[in-house]
Amino acid sequence: MNLPRVLRHLLTPRWKIRRAFPRATLHAIEHAIRAAEAKHGGQICFAVEAALEIVPLLQDVSPRERALDVFAQRRVWDTEHNNGVLIYLLLADHDVEIVADRGIHGRVGTDMWEHICRKMEAEFRSGRFEAGVLAGIDAVSEHLARHFPQHRDGANELPDRPFVL
């Protein structure tokens, strides 16, 4: 068990999400996802979580493992062309994870997703949460547009509204 991590999570209150992502920022993120998805056939989801609950924390669940869990719970994998992408932020760990379904992941690869995550984390370290998420959405959208340029004729398979966990 990583005691500093446990303490960091226990001392990260949920209101930190509202501070980093006020209502106007959440609306901007939702609008950015909607606008991005109008340009391609992919699906983008954004989820932010202040800290892990005590049981996963004591089980030493990594941010990646939690992102995979959220990916499954939110059914991001359940798109017609297997091209859903989750951008997940765990505030207590200052960690961004991108989980992409097999249809897009196989074409983009882990290194590119990691590159986008690190760029977002750099923005977050400077306190620019909205700018970091919007840049991440744009970067993910570029890859989706390259590999899934077909427009879905208005079909929106996943919610555009950010998930605050």
Task: Describe what you observe in this structure.
53% of the residues lie in helices and 13% in strands. Strands 3-2-1-4 form a four-stranded mixed beta sheet, with helices on both faces. It is of the alpha/beta class and 165 residues long. The protein is globular and about 50 Å long. Strand 2 and strand 3 form a beta hairpin. The protein has one domain (3-164): Diaminopimelate Epimerase, Chain A, domain 1 (Roll). It has helices at residues 3-10, 15-20, 23-37, 54-58, 63-73, 102-108, 110-125, 129-147, and strands at residues 43-49, 84-90, 95-100, 163-164. The longest helix is centred in the last third of the chain and has 19 residues, at 129-147.
Compute the number of structural domains: 1
Shape: globular
User: Helix count?
Assistant: 8
Largest sheet: 4 strands, mixed
Query: Strand share of the residues?
Result: 5-15%
Order of SSEs, N→C?
HHHEHHEEHHHE
Please state how the strands of the largest beta sheet are arranged side by side.
3-2-1-4
Rg for CA atoms: 15 Å
Structural class: alpha/beta
CATH-scheme architecture: Roll
**pLDDT average, as an integer?**
95
Spans of at least 5 consecutive residues whose pLDDT stays below 50 are none
CATH class: Alpha Beta
Percent range for helical residues? 40-55%
Summarize, please.
It contains eight helices and four strands; from the N terminus they run αααβααββαααβ. The chain is α/β, with parallel strands linked by helices.
Keywords, please?
165 residues; Diaminopimelate Epimerase, Chain A, domain 1; 8 helices; 4 strands; 13% strand
